[in-house]
Amino acid sequence: MKFIKYFDALSSEDKVKEFSEYFGISEKIMKIIVNRGYDTKEKVSDFLWPEKVELKSPFTLKGMSEAVETINEFVKNK
After folding, report:
1. How far apart are CA 72 and CA 77, in angstroms?
2. Per-residue pLDDT tens digits for 5-52
3. What are the backbone dihedrals phi and psi of residue 23, each rounded to the nearest 5 degrees, phi first?
4. What does the alpha-carbon distance between residue 60 and residue 69 come to, in Å, rounded to a whole number?
5. Which of 36, 40, 46, 57 is 20 to 30 A distant from 11 in Cα terms?
6. 7: left (phi over 0), alpha (psi -120 to 50) or beta
7. What is the DSSP string of the chain?
């Protein structure tokens, strides 16, 4: 069991190094990305450069409309 955990960690470190070189990103940043579950080049690429259609509207966030109104009022009254 300990060997399997060690092997998984080792392969994760290998991925970090490989992906870091492939994408030109520091190993520290890539380690965070891989630890968050982006464990293939395709997943990392999708994370780093999402398509516009995949991005959700900020107005789906609760209170966004009110925040925009507040900012617009502030700019208008400045």
Report:
1. 9
2. 544 555 688 999 999 999 999 999 999 999 999 999 999 999 999 886
3. -95, -10
4. 15
5. 46
6. alpha
7. -HHHHHHHHHHHHHHHHHHHHHHT--HHHHHHHHHTT--SHHHHHHHHS--GGGSPPGGGSTTHHHHHHHHHHHHHH-
